[in-house]
Amino acid sequence: MTVVPVRAARVAAVSPTPCARSAPAIAADSEAALISSRSWSSGLETMIWAGDFPAAVAADFAAIKALASGLEGTGRPLVTSSGTLMLAFAGITGRPGTEADFAPSGPRVDAENFVIELAERGVRSSAVRLPPIVHSSLDHHGFAHILIDIARQTGVSGYVGDGANRWPSVHTLDAARVYRLALENAPAGSRLHAVADEGIPFRDIAAAIGRGAGVPVAGISAEDAGERFAFLGGAVGVDNPTSSEVTRKVLGWEPAHPGLIEDLEHGHYFA
């Protein structure tokens, strides 16, 4: 297999390559490439949120369409990345979002729906929804780092309101396995959730960051969130619990690495 990360879109496409090597060795290489791609795409996620959002969304969709044009009718897999936060922004809150949930249209949603519809055009397509925090020592640009930097700069690790809103998360290595399994086995037209921690109260995330950064923890009002959290102001108060029950059954996937709070306690984020 050859995994191709695409600049401007968090996309992984795979095609068979004649090779005498064993299937496990090929799978290991694919997973390593996906880990590298995921580490890079954490930075892209930050750019999408912090930079020119419409332009980034358009570039993402254009790249997906370009890949799809060469795969129609082949039966080959195409796996793209999406995000669980889109479920909350679509109004799915107060309960865990599931793989069956989707919005009819919207930024980034249109690209995900396009990928799912490729199943009807001879592509074994799937979309992996990533939680807002994908964490590990391989994460150098993701939202965990942004939140830590804000806590250090402001002297307070904050949360919105009472901090009861929940964010899902996953370890980078567990997410990479979801992509590999999707490339190998996901049914055409699958929405998949690379989610290990279904929903951690944001105040618990803030508390772990406060301990690591050596700063106090405090709640702030929703009105002040934009000033405190900058481009993340509209997301830090969102309730986004997300289930991965279907993904686990379909792919035979189980997370094997530390959860977010344990990972934050390891200290590598604060070195």
Topology of this structure?
Layout: E1 2-6, E2 9-15, H1 23-50, H2 53-69, E3 77-83, H3 85-89, H4 109-117, E4 124-130, E5 133-135, H5 143-154, E6 157-160, E7 166-171, H6 172-185, E8 190-193, E9 197-201, H7 202-213, E10 217-220, H8 225-229, H9 245-251, H10 260-266
Parallel strand pairs: 3-4, 4-8, 5-7, 6-10
Antiparallel strand pairs: 1-2, 2-3, 7-9
Helix pairs in contact: 1-2, 1-6, 2-4, 5-7, 7-10
Q: Which features does this protein show?
A:
5-stranded mixed beta sheet, Rossmann fold, disordered N terminus, 271 residues, 3-stranded mixed beta sheet, alpha/beta
Task: Please give a structural write-up.
The two termini are 36 Å apart. This protein is an alpha/beta fold and 271 residues long. Helix content is 43%, strand content 19%. It has one domain (2-142, 168-198, 240-258): Rossmann fold (3-Layer(aba) Sandwich).
